[in-house]
């Protein structure tokens, strides 16, 4: 166990080292950083002075180690565009993204597993067939098209829900949540559904496949032979055995949700980190791009680490295999 | 079945619950948020507009763009400057008094090296305190239009700035965010309650404002939420989430007009859109042509004739523009009907002129264009690409965000570019000095006409209005003949409003909440 | 499966393998799956229609001299105000929608194919090397693949694309936009290919004929290219099909975010983005038709991929 986790940790550190090198190179090779900071009419002396101050004339390795040092303290400098510390910007935007991902994950998991189990058990019913065909369409629908369609139907046409933005936020001091007010929930519904749909179909199909496989195993046949009720077989035995792979899915699922939140946030003007990143790309706001890169990598490394450990705990086969 | 019922119930429950409000809350949106709350740090439209609700200047303009007293009650010109009598009893939001000291401080700050308002403030060489409520602004020579130049120089409290270490605007060298970026202390009708940049800014009416009761506005609270995506912005208005959209896309104007409970206000804007052609360099950077075709007036005329301004107006702008033949709008001193008339559209003649100039098969060139600055900017450029293709000019379009487009022009790195120009002073000098003077900082065309340069200089000090106007006319006629630019149109502003609110539209596209009335 | 073909006639091998490929149960399965047949029909039809767009399309929307602004914003032919020569209407610049969708679809498919090919070449090469050479090389390559697989492709594509654009000087950004997009998407899906190719290689590398080839002193690259590579073909094909659907979506998404193909030569995603601006003003056809085209295209490719996965997976047969 210890060795296993150590190995994973080493891997994670390696990933972070590569990512930080890439984001460091962004600063140095994308345009002239001095040009991004001074006004149009800055003199040559001013430019040289800033180069000096920023240490741009030091050897690359010195610069890199300085960058790493700052990064470890969460210091990515000021955004070129709005002149505010990038780490602060990210932490301000983080609750919006995480809440969106959280709500979407719940929708995707609950509905996905529910429908997956249903279609797995009643594999011949026409409802199952219908759900499955729709799910394939779901995989083929780009997130942004779903978002546009939902806005058009529910916000503009029916006027039931707001079309964009995050409202009804309550400041808890260290976290700004929108999950405590009706307004907040109204605003999060459409983006959360948009974001969850793709993952939902994936989970549905995976759980169904697992269910089908488990239903054909011997121990379900034995259970049936023992005369257990269908209900008991389905839920006490079959579903439970599909849960091991589902845990892995949750990890991947959250990763996927964070990835697609960039698109959802853009369509719905959801003020999270993804929207900030896309805007930064437009303006070539390198400090934000670099910080987002490192931040997302860190998030993924952590998620995978947790999933690996969970998997290790839940599934004895891996433990033995090691 | 159960599930759908449940869904229906919960959706209704969510829709019904909407907060009952006693106060008048105005919720509005536009494309871009203010970059900073520091009033001297960024000279940029949305930033000026946002800060103008919290900070005030000595002189302001009302919705009809007429100069009005704001923090100064009266002013008069002397031989070497202007004297301003300040309004008495004005308090900043933190309770301190507004006095002559603050005016001196604010001009010093606006003239600071890190200020973005140096251009407007630089003619003020010194500010002198006569008494607590009188200041004298000394200028470098007589300046007949100084009050016009002061409408966006906002006044800050000296004590507050010193206490919070923001005596100078945020410097590019700064490692930390300064206090003034997200905090504000002005004298204006609204106070800053909370600010989450690019997300939500909340302002509340200032109960101690000097102008209380003098203006029709009755807004208690303003909630501003920028929405980048144009379609989403309109959706917010259509679904009733906001009461006011400053910049609905033109194609949606009809939709808003025909929606129940919504209306659109339009006004001719003081902003002209045009293409610049660099005739100054010896060899165009992006062209396969030998040398620089733009040096030949025939080529410049051909470009002018090839662009179908009426088609752009009808199809791209949905009728919301005024095709033109000059680069400044009616309302600005110097715009005349003769010069304002468009060069017309004549592709056949344009092709002939190109052939005469030695380019029967045309040439290639890059068109630099912003994609988030003017009404349908990128779409106008796209249309121009097709029109120029018909006379054999192969245009490679490069449409990029304004933050990258404008430096290209200022550094003179573009052969052929789109630019728009508004005139806050309502005087042609503002256009000449930036766009037509050989040394003009935004003149990337290389146009350098000795007489135009001379006039540009002369009208800064010419006090005789008739003589001055004659000179301005002369310069514009020269420009009309020389064609350094391809004028397209003057913009029309369109604001989308819910019927619950009435806001007078202003040609400078600034939202003036002191005139906004909630019904 | 037998591998006793004579070694001295290697040039016949591709032919015989193709023969076997054709004769096996895939065709049988295909002919007995209506879904697969419909999907294949739609896929082939749309790919052909798009590839031959210059021949089919009534107009060339990428040629600015053929566009007339006065024809802009016309509705489809069957709607009041529509004109017969513009069957699906025109966009905001006066481009014929049908032609623009065909050309845009062609661009989307080409970008998708190019990206998948890039990912495939990269992935299979690394995978075969990894499986054949083993040891440290294998460990390094597979660790990198593992790491990359943990980050979702679309996010990586957005990141690589953003970084790629940032590295390019402004003037070249639009010109090279297409290539940046291809590289961004291609670089994200190689690990899938590498994993599969590695697996197949390891199975094959232990077989007697490869051992024999090694003993008679054939160079490693020759063995890999001639004997090992063809055996990775089947599973790689499945991944490539699903990958194509994902790549098309990825391109559309990047373009929709304004980070992909510029609107002068629009892809389906760019068209949807531009059309989206006109959705509320009643010009629904500018966004609706490209969106339908995109969804049908991706759906068909997905369906095909789904069927291929089932057909090639012995467990489900």
Automatic annotation (TrEMBL), chain A:
Xref: PANTHER family: ABC TRANSPORTER PERMEASE PROTEIN, DIPEPTIDE TRANSPORT SYSTEM PERMEASE PROTEIN DPPB-RELATED
Keywords assigned: Cell membrane, Membrane, Transmembrane, Transmembrane helix, Transport
TM ranges: 12-30, 100-119, 131-155, 184-207, 243-268, 288-314
Main location: membrane
Protein name: Peptide/nickel transport system permease protein
Domain of life from the UniProt record: Bacteria
Family (UniProt): Belongs to the binding-protein-dependent transport system permease family.
Coiled-coil regions, chain positions: none
Gene Ontology CC: plasma membrane
Membrane disposition: Multi-pass membrane protein
GO biological process, one term: transmembrane transport
Every ABC transmembrane type-1 domain range: 94-311
The species this protein was found in: Sulfitobacter marinus
Signal peptide per UniProt: none
PROSITE patterns, alphabetized: ABC_TM1
Subcellular location: Cell membrane
From TrEMBL, chain B:
Gene Ontology, cellular component aspect: ATP-binding cassette (ABC) transporter complex; outer membrane-bounded periplasmic space
SUPFAM superfamilies per record: Periplasmic binding protein-like II
Protein name according to UniProt: Peptide/nickel transport system substrate-binding protein
Organism: Sulfitobacter marinus
Compartment list: Periplasm
Signal peptide as annotated in the record: 1-22
GO molecular function ontology, one term from the record: peptide transmembrane transporter activity
Alphabetical UniProt keywords: Signal, Transport
Record-stated family: Belongs to the bacterial solute-binding protein 5 family.
Domain Solute-binding protein family, first and last residues per copy: 67-440
UniProt main location, coarse: periplasm
CDD domains: PBP2_NikA_DppA_OppA_like_2
Gene Ontology process terms (BP): peptide transport
InterPro entries: Peptide/Ni-bd (IPR030678), SBP_5 (IPR039424), SBP_5_dom (IPR000914)
Cross-referenced PANTHER family: OLIGOPEPTIDE-BINDING PROTEIN APPA, PERIPLASMIC BINDING COMPONENT OF ABC TRANSPORTER
Automatic annotation (TrEMBL), chain C:
Membrane topology field: Multi-pass membrane protein
SUPFAM superfamilies listed in its UniProt record: MetI-like
Transmembrane segments: 36-57, 107-134, 140-164, 176-197, 209-229, 236-258, 278-305
Domain ABC transmembrane type-1: start-end pairs: 105-305
Ranges in coiled-coil conformation: none
Domain of life: Bacteria
Cross-referenced InterPro entries: BP-dependent_transpt_permease, MetI-like, MetI-like_sf, OppC_N
GO annotations of cellular component type: plasma membrane
Family matches, as PROSITE patterns: ABC_TM1 (PS50928)
Subcellular compartments: Cell membrane
Family the UniProt entry places it in: Belongs to the binding-protein-dependent transport system permease family.
Name assigned to this protein: Peptide/nickel transport system permease protein
Organism placement in taxonomy: Bacteria, Pseudomonadati, Pseudomonadota, Alphaproteobacteria, Rhodobacterales
